[in-house]
Write the structure tokens for this entry.
Amino acid sequence: EKYRTYANLLFGVGQTLGIVLQSLTGHNSLVYVGIFRNMFAGLHVIGSILIVVCLGWLKQYSTGIIVIPCKETSTFRAIFSAGCPMGVSYFLTYGEWELLALF
């Protein structure tokens, strides 16, 4: 839990500093703010994954996470048959709200 606290604190401070620097340099458009936030969030996710993998926190769970689901195709199919429609519905709902926000 300490790691998550420090990572979120660093993420929040970095994001706030970036937005302040953008406003000071004259890039006040919401497009630039959105692009910066998405890029910073992507770096946060990649950094978190790299830290977890490099520190070996998942070694003891790797057989259950990687090997077993690949061997049992029925479980794999069940996950995708449930997850794909939910992903499409999420995408449509998100898109609808974005369109409503624009107009």
